[in-house]
Amino acid sequence: MANTTLANAVKETKPLSGQTVKVISAVAQTLGKTPGQVLDDLIELDEDNSK
Fold first, then answer.
1. Helix, coil or strand: residue 28
2. For residues 13-50, b (16+ Cβ closer than 10 Å) or e, as one string?
3. Separation CA 22–CA 4 (nearest Å)
4. Label partner for 21 (CA 20 to 30 A): which of 30, 33, 38, 50?
5. In this predicted model, which residue has the larger pLDDT, 22 or 12?
């Protein structure tokens, strides 16, 4: 289930603002980070990509 959740989350049509707590939690668990750390990383990447 986590693979499907993550695969759907990385589609280019899915903006950061559309990510769910379930997706953030799955990514965090996969990376060994807290959901807050993952969200901080995603926000930073989103800001870098919008420049």
1. helix
2. eeeeeebeeebbebbbeeeeeeeeebbeeeeeeeeeee
3. 12
4. 50
5. 22
